[in-house]
Structures are given as C-alpha cells and as structure tokens.
Specification:
The chain is mostly beta strands. The protein contains one helix and eleven strands. Strand 7 and strand 8 form a beta hairpin. The longest helix is centred in the middle third of the chain and has 6 residues. The protein is elongated and about 55 Å long.
Length: 189
C-alpha cells in the first residue's frame, strides 16, 4: 500500500526593503509541510510551521542576520504495539531553490542571498535530509514497556516545538527588495 502524503503550505511574508545607513533588504524562508506515513504503522503524526523571516537585512552590518523559526510536531500511538514499544519519526528539510545544502539561497529579482538553516544555535549542523553533511531531526517516542530512545524520549500525543536556526551571512551586495526561498519539510514515521 503506498505511503500517505499530505502537504500543508505555510507562508511567511517579509517586510518591505527600506533605505537607512545603506541598502537594506528583507528575506524570508517559506517552509511547506509534507507528511509521509506508512499505513501499517500504528502512529499518527501532524506538524505545522509559520515559516522563518529574517526581517530587514543590512549588507553593511558587521555580523550575520539570524532568525529562529519553530516546527511543531505531534505524534500519537494508535495501536498497542506502538504504545508499548515506542516509535521514531524523522523530520527532514529540502535544499530549497539553490540546489545545494552548502548554501541555500533567498531569491529576489535577479539576485540571491546566501543563507542556511541549522539544528543548533551555534550554526554548525545544517538541517537537511542526511545527505551532503546535513542531518535530519529524529524524534523518539518512548513506549510504556520499552524505551527505544535510550532514556527519556518524547511523550506521544503531546505537541513538541523544534527550533530551526537561520543564519544570513553579512556583506552580500544585492539590490533592495523582498527575497524568499521555498523548502519542503518532510515528516516520515
């Protein structure tokens, strides 16, 4: 039986570019949601996001622009086996319009702004699908008899917030305007 796939497009709007102390830009990463479920599994999951907006970008600023976004995931066990033994879910992000995890790009007009999304506040682990040096987010839900998580684990049926850390490097000389990228977040369970 084929996997069920659902999409929920979430959008983020960026502010208008303004002139102050040089060229200023606005950028947003828009994340669309997709659920992949195996019907034979006893878990049911849903998730949502409001996207991530960098706001107004100043290419003359010395440091990077950073922004955080949140993905909210809720998974519950529907069958006895899943409730007893626990289960895992994997959340991954696509590359977006750049075609590479090395540097995702926000596009506006004919220009691009390099940025990336990370799993950590130190901006060292690129949030991806496990390829090209990236990592997905693995969510482990403990069962009543067995904990596949090695201690702890998440509670099924409770919404869990996952922070996504965005970093937009400084000194990118581009025209004023609105810049955006579209990514797909996929939850496999």
């Amino acid at each position: 039986m084929p996997a069920r796939r659902e999409r929920n497009d979430m959008s983020a709007r960026s502010g208008r570019a303004m002139a102050r102390c040089g060229t200023r830009l606005a950028g947003a990463a828009v994340i669309a949601c997709a659920l992949l479920a195996m019907p034979a599994r006893g878990a049911q999951c849903s998730f949502s996001t409001a996207g991530l907006g960098f706001g107004v970008y100043d290419p003359l600023a010395a440091g990077a622009d950073t922004a955080n976004g949140t993905l909210t995931v809720t998974c519950s066990a529907r069958t006895g086996g899943e409730r007893r033994n626990g289960f895992t879910a994997t959340l991954s992000l696509s590359i977006g319009s750049s075609g590479s995890y090395a540097a995702r790009t926000l596009r506006g007009g004919g220009d691009v702004l390099r940025y990336n999304l990370y799993l950590d506040a130190a901006y060292t682990t690129v949030f991806g699908d496990g390829s090209a040096g990236t990592l997905p987010m693995t969510l482990c839900y403990r069962g009543s008899r067995r904990d596949p998580c090695g201690g702890g684990g998440l509670t099924a049926g409770v919404a869990h917030s996952i922070t996504v850390y965005g970093n937009l490097p400084p000194a990118q000389d581009v025209a004023p305007g609105s810049y955006a990228d579209n990514l797909v977040a996929t939850l496999t369970f």
